[in-house]
Design brief:
Layout lengths: L2 H14 L18 H30 L16 H22 L5 H24 L8 H21 L4 E7 L9 H4 L3 H7 L4 E7 L1 H5 L9 E10 L6 H6 L5 E10 L9 H10 L6 E7 L3 E8 L1
Antiparallel strand pairs: 1-2, 2-3, 3-4, 4-5, 5-6
């Protein structure tokens, strides 16, 4: 859950300084990198992140208790929904990082690579803090999915100079959270972060972009494939079984709406579109699982 802290911090920077979201590099820049902007960005983001880590350590880790640094294999927990969440954070932190570095007039390819570096630099300290936590530990699985998310972003930028396959997120409240609110969350905002039963992660495919030039497929319409799980009151399947709960994976297919093709003259609106494009907009969906086989949802959140 704590990996979301770095994602929310970078998101706040993008929102406060909404010029970042519309920053572009139109080619070779004769003036080079704006060093004042680069140093200002580095110092501001570094200071804010440092304060956030100190606060996280005081509020989150001290409450749980500390021990010597250790490793922890959490692969079997939460049907790997949390791991996909790490990839999602790595992907969008890289995406935000690119925009931040473009704002400094950095060449586009360098901005892409440094954006990915920034994403990992913001996530690794949290993994190290996990390594000293009594309840958690340093997870190589988390590190792997952090890198996979960044890799998905970088590979598309280098190959297509555009994101044709986007990671998106959706959430709905569930009946599982009230059964264990201290772990799955009491309020809506806590459940948004903690209740993996209600989290769905999507790969949204830009069919128009993937089909190449001169195709007539609508630019705004994507095909989305989602992954989630339910019935998880406890992290591991054997724990759920022991308490009488049946957890199961969910595979979904839905349509999605691609906002990246929309451009306006208003920076605030463009920033809003940039942020909303991280979210899977509710739409009809077909769900496949081993419990109920096939379910149709008129609107799936």
């Amino acid at each position: 859950m704590t990996h979301k802290a770095s994602f929310l911090l970078a998101l706040s920077f993008l929102w406060i300084f909404h010029d970042f979201a519309t920053a572009k590099n139109t080619g070779a820049d004769s003036t080079g990198i704006n060093k004042k902007r680069l140093w200002g960005l580095t110092a501001g983001l570094g200071a804010a992140y440092g304060v956030a880590l100190i606060g996280l350590n005081e509020v989150w880790y001290k409450e749980q208790g500390k021990r010597d640094f250790h490793f922890f294999n959490d692969w079997a927990q939460w049907k790997q929904v949390d791991k996909i969440g790490h990839a999602y954070s790595g992907y969008h932190l890289s995406r935000i990082g690119k925009q931040l570095f473009l704002w400094t007039k950095m060449p586009e390819k360098k901005a892409v690579l440094w954006g990915a570096v920034m994403s990992q630099a913001m996530m690794i300290p949290i993994e190290i803090l996990d390594g000293f936590s009594v309840e958690y530990g340093f997870s190589w699985g988390d590190i792997t999915f952090n890198l996979l998310g960044a890799g998905l972003f970088v590979s598309q930028e280098l190959l297509w100079q555009r994101q044709k396959i986007r990671m998106k997120f959706s959430f709905h409240t569930t009946s599982w959270a009230p059964l264990r609110p201290e772990v799955l969350g009491k309020s809506y905002m806590e459940q948004l972060l903690k209740d993996y039963n209600g989290q769905t992660y999507w790969l949204s495919f830009d069919i128009h972009g993937l089909a190449g030039k001169h195709n007539k497929f609508p630019k705004w319409l994507n095909a989305a494939f989602g992954y989630g799980a339910e019935g998880m009151v406890y992290g591991r399947e054997e724990e759920n079984n022991a308490h009488g709960y049946e957890c199961y994976r969910q595979y979904l297919f839905s349509i999605d709406f691609d906002l990246s093709y929309i451009h306006t003259r208003h920076k605030f609106v463009n920033t809003l579109l940039f942020l909303v494009d991280m979210i899977k907009i509710p739409a009809p969906a077909v769900e496949f699982n081993r419990k109920n086989k096939v379910n149709f949802h008129w609107i799936y959140f």
